[in-house]
Amino acid sequence: MDRIPEPKSRRDERIDYRPAMPDDGAAIAGLICQAGGGLYEFLFDDLIPFVRAFDIVAAGVGMSDSPLSWENCLVATGGSAGVVGVANFFPADSISDETFLSLVSDRFEHIRPMLQLLDRGSMFLNAVAVAGNYRGNGIGTRLIERAEARALEAGLPRLSLHVWVDNVPAIRLYKRHGFTEVGIAELAASPRLPHRGGSLLMRKTLLRSPD
Question: Domain holding 123: CATH number?
Answer without folding.
Answer: 3.40.630.30
